[in-house]
Every structure is written in C-alpha cells, then in structure tokens.
Amino acid sequence: MFYQMYYRIIWLCILSNIFLASLVSGTPIVLKKTPQKRPVWGFYAHQQINRLAVFTLPTDMMPFFKKYITYLSDNAVNPDKRRYAVVGEAPRHFIDLDAYSDTTTATLPRFYKEATDRYGADTLALHGIVPWQIQLTKYQLTEAFKERNVRRILRVAADLGHYIADANVPLHTTHNYNGQLTNQQGIHGFWESRLPELFSIDYDFLTGQAEYLYSPQKAAWRAVFKANAALDSVLRFERQLTDEVGETQKFGFEERNGVTTKVYSAGFSRRYHEHLKGQVERQMRASVKMVGDFWYTCWVDAGQPDLKALVKYQLTDDEQKEEVEEKKNWLKRLFSAREEN
Ligand SMILES: [Zn+2]
C-alpha cells in the first residue's frame, strides 16, 4: 500500500513540478538496494541551490543567469528525472567511498581515465561516479560557453548544479545511503528533503562571491570527502534520538496533495536538526558556493565570452518543443520503469 501511495505522490509532484515531498516519508523505497533505485535529493533543495548560486556570480555573468533563473531552478532536477531514461545516468549522483578499502589517490585515482584503468567502468558505475561526473560536466559547460550556445549553457549549467549538490550530501557518499544497513531506513529523504523543507527558511545563504577554481577536480573530491566526514553524525544522532523517543513519537502523518503520508514528526525533526548543529545549512551553503564557483570557472576557462550579447537570445519554437518532448519521454520511461519493478 505504501508503494502505491509513494508512486501516486511522485507522479503528482513531478507533473505539477513541486517538491518531491513524498521522499520525506519512511516509505518502502528505502528497502531497495540497487544503485538505480536510490532515493534522490529533494526537488526543493536542488532548485534552491541552483537559484541561489546565481547570486554569487560576478556582474558580467549575473544578468544572463538572472534572466534564466527560473529555467536553472526548474531544470535542477533533470538528472533525477531522466535516471530511468538515460543509460548511465544513475551512478552519476553518488559515490560509495566505503566500497573502497583505501581512498587515497593511489588507490582511488582522481581522474576518471586512471580510475577506469584500475577498476573498469562497470565497477566504478556500481559504486557511483559523482566526483568524476562533476569534472566531465565542468568540461561540457566550458565547451558550451566557448560555443556561445545558450541552450547548451543552460542545460549543462543546471545539470552541473545538480551533481555538485548531490556530492555535498553525506548519504550520497556511502553504501548505507538510506540507513538500510543500520535499520535507519528513510534517513536519506529525512536529511535532504524533510529538514531543508522545514528549516531552510531560516538558513543564511549569503556565501560571498563565486571564486575561480584552479583545480575543479580537487574541489569535487574535497566536497565528497567533506560530506563523507559528516556521515557519522548523520547516522549516530538519528539512532540516539530514536532510542530516546521511540518509534511512535518519531513518525507522524501529514496531508500532502490529498494523500495522508507518513513523515518524520515535527518534534523529532526539530530535535534531530538541533543535534546536527547547522550541518544541513552548511552543506547547502557549500553547494550554493560551489555551484557558483564552477559556473564562474567554466566561463573564465572559456575565455569569458560576452554574455550580454546572449542575454537577448530566445529559445526557438523548435528548441522549446524539443525540451517539452524530452521531458515527456523521461516521464514515460519513469512510468514504465516503475511498472517493471
Ligand atoms: Zn541526484
């Protein structure tokens, strides 16, 4: 029954393009173990991160990005939407650092080519490739800027924001991505959807200006290791609090889109959030700043093309039609993938 409820909410959310609120519930998606079926960042946080990153940009870039801020925010969740439609999409969102006995550069090469030489592409895909994906997408955005291809710039910038945000989530860096190995199922959506939805209104998102990254590759790995270092408290505090309050107080029910949904109770969420001492805020801020840094770095590396000239560009009818068709296709695949499960 929870499966049906979950799917129903997903369809409602995707179709109306609002928060993927169902992820905050302790629904059975948590029991699924293959990488393709991992839960995803909440829509809300992804959209916020891409939107806020625009305000970190220098004046040469800001008008262009501001004009398309709705596009960048709405399309921040494309990579999650297309995970069933595009081969190879699923592993781009995470990396199980604990799948490797040693994560130094010697055993976990920071460049994809060396990593594939060592492990093979299949093994890497199995454990996730987010830091390498960030490097690849960074390259693609630089190319799009060089081509002055507005549509491509926007599409790739939105994607890059997504992968960067994912890399900053502690539970995107472990095999125990939803607490399924420690009897904490649901913690993924709890941390990255429920908490930002409840508390991010009070977060301080003034991160300062975007800065040039001399080594985007190192920046991507730094983010992943930093997120991973926060994992211990993510899991530990949830366990402690659960022991303290018991299962009945841990969960409650809320009405979402006309469906009664099981959620982490407001009280439990507040206490957990307090225990984390600003961790979700720190990770969201880090994402915002990092997205700005990467967009800026790509633009600089492309030779600082004049974005004022591009600001007037309007997507052609054909381009707009293509965008709509593409999304319909992802949705179709998502439906059939769900039915196959
Ligand atoms: Zn994702």
Descriptive overview:
- This protein has 341 residues and is mainly alpha-helical.
- It has one domain (2-340): P1 Nuclease, CATH 1.10.575.10.
- The protein is built from 15 helices and two strands.
- Strands 1-2 form a two-stranded antiparallel ribbon.
- The radius of gyration is 20 Å and the shape is globular.
- It starts with a helix and ends with a helix.
- 42% of the residues are buried.
- Mean pLDDT is 87; it is low at 1-36.
As for the number of domains, it is 1
Small-molecule binders here are: zinc ion
Order of helices and strands: HHHHHHHHHHHHEEHHH
Supply the CATH architecture.
Orthogonal Bundle
Give, in spatial order, the strands making up the sheet with the most strands. Answer: 1-2
Helix/strand-derived category reads mainly alpha
Give a count of the beta strands, DSSP E runs of length 2 or more. 2
CATH fold-level name: P1 Nuclease
Question: So how many helices?
Answer: 15
State the name of the first-level CATH class: Mainly Alpha
Characterize the biggest β-sheet.
Answer: 2 strands, antiparallel
Task: Looking at this protein, list some descriptive labels.
single chain; about 350 residues; mainly alpha; P1 Nuclease; 15 helices; 2 strands; about 60% helix; disordered N terminus; binds zinc ion
In short:
The chain has 341 residues and is mostly helical. The protein is built from 15 helices and two strands.
Write the layout of secondary structure elements.
Blueprint: H1 2-16, H2 43-53, H3 62-67, H4 69-74, H5 78-81, H6 112-119, H7 121-127, H8 130-147, H9 150-167, H10 187-199, H11 216-229, H12 231-250, E1 251-256, E2 259-264, H13 266-275, H14 279-301, H15 317-340
Antiparallel strand pairs: 1-2
Bound molecules: zinc ion.
Zinc ion is lined by residues 40-41, 79-80, 93, 162, 166.
